[in-house]
Design goal:
Length: 189
């Protein structure tokens, strides 16, 4: 079975992520919020590092319940900075709280975060036709636009590269290479 070449075939967690999540459209607000936070945590690191800590993040941040996270105190942030299950970067940890607050404002304004974020792609996944992973960009005009708007709306750790990765991870963009068996599956969702 042919997969995108970035997948670590000897790592079941990576294979599972590629086969079942990456490029599959996500519309659930809480899952979208989780992925935005995890992509932000990835800044300067590898996705593999974050993927291995994903359950730790879920546990540390109450399953990414934005309503609870938005109320975190400085004591809670201090506690999180000592939590070895996550990346203990002060700014990245604080950004989850800031992003939870911005996320809740967006939900209130748009009815759902999903409606807001999927609006960047006109509520329909973009299906690319890459032959090799080397052709896949790390940023685009669309990710630049998304990044600028998210920042304007109060989000942190949402640079253009993070936004592009977020769109790939949540199926807003399907960047499975044309020879990957997941390309057809996620294109039909």
């Amino acid at each position: 079975m042919k997969r995108c070449t970035w997948v670590k075939l000897d790592e079941p967690l990576y294979v599972d992520y590629h086969d079942k999540e990456w490029g599959v459209p996500v519309y659930d607000d809480q899952h979208l919020f989780e992925m935005l936070c995890l992509e932000g945590a990835q800044a300067g690191l590898s996705w593999w590092t974050i993927l291995q800590k994903r359950q730790g993040y879920r546990d540390a941040f109450e399953q990414f319940d934005a309503t609870k996270i938005a109320l975190y105190t400085e004591d809670k942030l201090s506690e999180l900075r000592e939590d070895q299950r996550i990346v203990r970067n002060k700014l990245k940890i604080a950004s989850v709280v800031t992003n939870a607050q911005a996320f809740l404002r967006i939900q209130q304004q748009y009815g759902s975060f999903s409606d807001y974020i999927w609006g960047f792609v006109n509520h329909k996944p973009i299906i690319n036709h890459w032959s090799t992973i080397a052709q896949v960009p790390v940023t685009t005009e669309l990710s630049e636009r998304m990044s600028k708007q998210l920042k304007k709306d109060g989000f942190k750790f949402v640079g253009s590269t993070i936004c592009y990765s977020f769109m790939q991870a949540t199926g807003m963009i399907n960047d499975h290479t044309v020879d990957c068996f997941c390309r057809q599956v996620s294109s039909e969702v």
